[in-house]
Specification:
- The protein has 23 helices and 28 strands.
- The longest helix is centred in the middle third of the chain and has 43 residues, at about 360-400.
- The strands form five sheets. It has a 15-stranded mixed β-sheet with strand order 14-15-16-17-18-19-20-21-22-23-24-25-26-27-28. Strands 2-6-7-5-4-3 form a six-stranded mixed β-sheet, covered by helices on one side.
- It is about 35% helix and about 15% strand.
- A hairpin with a 5-residue loop joins strand 10 (about 180) and strand 11.
- Among the domains are: about 125-210 and about 235-345, Transferase(Phosphotransferase), domain 1 (Orthogonal Bundle); about 420-525, Alpha Horseshoe (Serine Threonine Protein Phosphatase 5, Tetratricopeptide repeat); about 715-855, Leucine-rich repeat, LRR (right-handed beta-alpha superhelix), CATH 3.80.10.
- It is α/β, with parallel strands linked by helices and about 850 residues long.
Length: about 850
């Protein structure tokens, strides 16, 4: 096997060992995995922009940086193996700092302890989408993405992968969909979820687990699942990867995928396609790759690039390119008009390339040659005129003899060509419930073409809907050109069941049939069967299943609909907890109408109308970031927890007299909160709203209140509140005296006019944020149990010695220009320190501090 190490990159100064990334760099064996909890109110969700098998990507607003970013979150936070793979992806990507690799900004834990990481929000579209548009005939895309421009994109991808290999990392999931092309020429390689270190064996890929650690806080080690099976995308997986031979995977596995991407650029098709994944994997393992020119005979494919593709996609790794830079060099050669190392050149090819590089001189020589050829051609043309005339007369004679036969054949073809139109009309009638008209159209189609597979398939489906299983089985037997094996088996099984017992289906059997049809991919037929199930005998689970199938039918774009539910029994009634978050195309909730749902999460969807929820026994509804404008359907509900942050809601009057305990309306245009009067609210977030009258808050038994970036000027309304958490950052408040008697544990007064905190003396505060204020005296903090303290942009603070008296301090944001801070180095519990709003690890800070002092 060739040496897995890539050539050291040009311009790199230092040893390869220093540049090369190692497993211990991201999973230090001698220390815990320290993960930072997400700062309070740092990120605000906007919308879900993508979702894969392991994670979802959500567009967020970063309050501190005042910019839009992308946040990757785990879909299954309870899967421990997925947790560590997700963490490894984040850290590997964070260490691959290259112009063509998506940059990672931050890694941490949210309030529930779930892992996330943030990245640059990438614009544009994927190379996969671009190629789809090219293949569909989009004129604008064909004008904007010539082969030359696509090769420039591919060349940048080669640079990114060459860099990753030099750092000791292989991607293992390269494909057009993981390459993002921006509107200004940016090219970024995404999704490093399957990446690993070059030379990792199955054993070394496993990291020792320390049983005493909890993944929700910190961990000193992880244990990744061994890749004993093939992981990747069929068509872009190398043979060793498709076969699950992990020990053989190295940087040349990525080079195979690069060849497959170039294959797609040339043909606008996947290297291997089909509906049978096992067959695709077998073809990959055996190296059964159709050459680009045979795969796309209608496209002009340069032989030089075809040779590059076939070399990169060679069955044996030793026969492929041995580095990404070598592949890139051949692309440069082709674009410069030179021969590539992959093609078999001869004198003629070299001469042709020379001509292409020197077109001006060559055109003069070619013109002279064409004149000579034209003279010879005219002479030969005269000789062939008589011969061609004789052949034409012979052809006319044969045509005259077969006219009658062809006319008969044409009439038959015309009748058969009309059959598909009647089948299409019959299908439309069937899907809208007009079975009588559907059968009429279908019989006409079969009269015109008795062998129509489409017609017999539809007839079989109609017989399944009527539960005439024997007729359905016979119909499917006549289908020749369409795979209907699943339908045929279902029809046979239920025909035997009903004939042996001489009865029709029971309600439960009808529901089971509907599920089997849904699994076969026929949502329309499944919905009809489930709808026809006896409602008196159908269980709550069956009703939920019918709703799921109906949602899939209404939203075909959601191919992998997320639909998670749990049923609870309170003794007197049943209820449903339903989570359909992360379905960006889902907009219609009508299939949920009438279900006894008590807890519903719909954020990350396109829902704008809540009317299907009317009269539900909802106690909790989370719809943050949705397009909702009207809360009227919620009127009269027993809601206790409602989150409508970042929606277009303006009016809260439908919530009048609700028993709400938690309400989140941050970043909305709501200006009137009077409908909340007399509610038992304990948690309220009105940050970033246009509320001007805060008097209604007086009557709330609040323990947690966030009203940052509002017009609140004074805090007398909080007199009777037993607050434990308060955020008034970004407000014109100057006096916080009323807080001296509150049992506060967390207080944020950043960017306010407060300049004196003496009244906080002796408070049991754990979190205090004072950044961007005129405060100068920190002595009232002496002896506090503070764990988090933020002093950023506090220009009047000169003396920090009081921090010696904070024994529990773990995180500190220093004021700009702070000096005489060496005493802080001796605080062993101070884990994070820095001058910015997101302090980093203390060890990193002191290392940089020492380097700066030396200068």
């Amino acid at each position: 096997m060739a040496n897995a190490q890539e050539k050291q990159p040009v311009g790199f100064i230092g040893s390869t060992d220093t540049f090369r990334l190692k497993r211990e760099d991201i999973h230090p064996p001698d220390q815990d995995i320290m993960l930072t909890s997400q700062p309070e109110d740092k990120y605000t969700p906007i919308e879900t922009v993508g979702e894969g098998a392991m994670k979802a990507v959500i567009k967020m607003h970063d309050r501190d940086a005042a910019r839009k970013i992308a946040m990757a979150v785990m879909l299954d936070a309870e899967d421990e193996d997925a947790y560590y793979r997700f963490l490894q992806e984040a850290r590997i990507t964070a260490n691959l700092e290259h112009p063509n690799i998506v940059p990672v900004h931050d890694i941490g834990l949210d309030r529930e302890g779930h892992l996330y990481f943030t990245m640059k929000l990438v614009g544009g579209e994927s190379l996969g989408k671009i190629i789809e548009r090219l293949a569909s005939g989009d004129k604008n895309y064909r004008a904007g993405y010539s082969l030359h421009q696509l090769l420039i994109i591919f060349r940048k991808v080669c640079d990114a992968i060459s860099f990753a290999h030099a750092r000791g990392v292989i991607h293992l999931d390269l494909k057009p969909d993981n390459i993002q092309v921006g509107p200004f020429g940016e090219v970024l390689v995404l999704d490093w979820g399957l990446s690993r270190f070059i030379g990792d064996s199955e054993e070394s890929a496993s990291i020792p687990r320390h049983s005493s650690q909890k993944k929700t806080v910190r961990q000193s080690g992880v244990e990744l699942t061994l890749d004993g099976i093939a992981k990747g995308t069929p068509g872009y997986m190398a043979p060793e990867q498709a076969a699950g031979r992990n020990r053989e995977k190295d940087h040349r596995t990525d080079l195979y995928a690069l060849g497959a991407i170039l294959y797609t650029i040339l043909t606008w098709k996947w290297p291997i396609e089909g509906n049978d994944i096992q067959k695709m994997l077998k073809d990959t393992i055996k190296g059964k790759i159709v050459s680009p020119k045979n795969r796309a005979p209608g496209r002009i494919i340069p032989l030089a690039l075809e040779a590059v593709v076939m070399k990169a996609m060679a069955l044996e790794p030793d026969a492929r390119y041995q580095s990404a830079s070598a592949l890139a060099k051949d692309i440069d050669a082709y674009m410069g008009g030179f021969a590539t190392s992959a093609e078999r050149t001869n004198l003629f090819i070299q001469l042709w390339l020379l001509v292409k590089r020197h077109r001006a001189v060559s055109s003069v020589l070619l013109g002279s040659l064409l004149v000579i050829v034209a003279v010879v051609w005219n002479f030969m043309l005269g000789i062939n005129v008589a011969k061609n005339e004789a052949l034409k007369n012979e052809k006319k004679a044969f045509e005259a003899l077969s006219v009658a036969q062809k006319e008969q054949e044409e009439r038959l073809k015309l009748a058969m060509s009309a059959a598909p139109r009647f089948v299409a009309e019959a299908k439309k009638c069937f899907e809208t419930g007009n079975d009588a008209e559907a059968m009429k159209e279908l019989k006409t189609a079969l009269t015109l073409d008795k062998n129509s597979s489409e017609a017999w398939l539809l007839y079989g489906r109609m017989m399944l809907a009527e539960e005439s299983f024997a007729k359905a089985f016979n119909a499917f037997a006549k289908v020749k050109s369409i795979d209907c094996e699943k339908y045929s088996k279902i029809a046979k099984d239920y025909a035997v069941l009903t004939q042996e017992q001489e009865r029709t289906l029971l309600a439960g059997e009808r529901v089971r049939l509907g599920k089997e049809i849904d699994k076969a991919g026929d949502i329309v037929l499944a919905a009809r069967l489930l709808k026809n199930a006896n409602p008196d005998r159908a269980t709550l689970t069956n009703r939920i299943e019918a709703a799921r199938v109906a949602l899939k039918e209404l939203h075909p774009a959601e191919k992998n609909l997320r639909f998670n539910f749990r049923i609870y029994d309170s003794g007197s009634s049943e209820g449903i907890v339903l989570d359909i978050t992360g379905n960006p195309q889902l907009h219609d909730l009508s299939p949920l109408k009438g279900l006894p749902i008590s807890d519903l999460s719909i954020y990350g969807t396109a829902v704008s109308d809540l009317s299907p929820l009317q009269d539900m026994p909802l106690r909790r509804l989370w719809a943050l970031g949705n397009k909702i404008t009207d809360l009227s359907p919620l009127k009269g509900m027993p809601l206790q927890d409602l989150n409508i942050q970042a929606t277009s809601v303006l009016d809260l009057s439908p919530l009048l007299n609700m028993p709400l305990k938690k309400l989140y309306i941050a970043n909305t245009k709501i200006s009137d909160i009077s409908p909340l009067r007399n509610m038992p609210l304990e948690v309220l977030d009105i940050s970033g709203t246009a509320v001007s009258d805060f008097s209604v808050i007086k009557g709330f038994p609040l323990v947690r209140l966030s009203m940052s970036n509002t017009a609140i000027k004074e805090l007398s309304i909080l007199k009777n509140c037993e607050l434990r958490e308060l955020n008034i950052s970004g407000t014109p408040v100057s006096d916080i005296g009323i807080l001296c008697e509150k049992p506060l544990e967390s207080l944020s007064i950043e960017s306010t006019q407060v300049n004196d905190i003496s009244l906080l003396k002796g408070k049991p505060l754990l979190v205090l944020r004072l950044s961007d204020t005129a405060i100068s005296d920190l002595s009232p903090l002496k002896g506090m149990p503070l764990k988090v303290l933020a002093l950023g942009k506090c220009k009047n603070i000169n003396d920090l010695t009081v921090l010696k008296e904070l024994p529990l301090l773990e995180e500190l944001e220093l004021p700009a220009g702070a000096k005489n801070i060496e005493f802080l180095r001796k605080k062993p519990g101070l884990l994070k320190i820095g001058f910015g709003p997101s302090p980093g690890a203390a060890a990193d800070f002191w290392r940089k501090w020492d380097e700066k002092q030396k200068k």
